[in-house]
Amino acid sequence: MTVSVKNLQFQYKANAKPTLSIPEWQIPTGASVFIYGPSGHGKSTLLNILAGILPCKQSEIEMGGQRLDKMSARQRDRFRARHIGYVFQQFNLINYLNIIDNIKLAADVAHKKVSRHDITQLLTALQIPESVWQHPAAQLSIGQQQRVAIARALIKQPDFLLVDEPTSSLDKNNRDAFMQLLMRHCEDRDVTLLFVSHDEQLQRFFEHSVSLESLNQVN
Asked: Which candidate, 74, 82, 136, 71, places its Cα nearest to that of 109?
């Protein structure tokens, strides 16, 4: 999915200083893009705009030939469910559901028909041991929760995957292992990937990297 942004202007309150001001930016279909910058400077805000969670009506945001800024809130929700996978920084798993039910719920919300075999195949590929598949999400390690969050996003077979700094709590070895898995799965499925983090060492995993400061024209 090609993503195109023009004249993006966003502020949380009317008449306040803009949080984001991006004149023009494009992500080609199938690209992997890394955006880096300090915490609190608008990286998560940008992801939430591209996911259609935050409306940005005064901007032009086109995804796969469709204008996100022209959609109603319900249309954006439907578009996100069908085309966008989102891995949140805090994972947002449902703690009392087991791994398989967490993933199945994501597929159901997106109206994607998936079998138990589809789910277990993805869990195996992400190296999540079968011994924990029936465990509630709350009982998983941080690394396991992270991979479940990725599986939940990928099970929808998204065209566009947004990943919000999920490696901050991992040591270097686990971080690198996670990144290798993520990149391989996106490449295998031709998923357009946008990943944001303050950790500039992650740039080496991506085709393209850019600082938010260079994109954002807020003075």
From this structure: 82
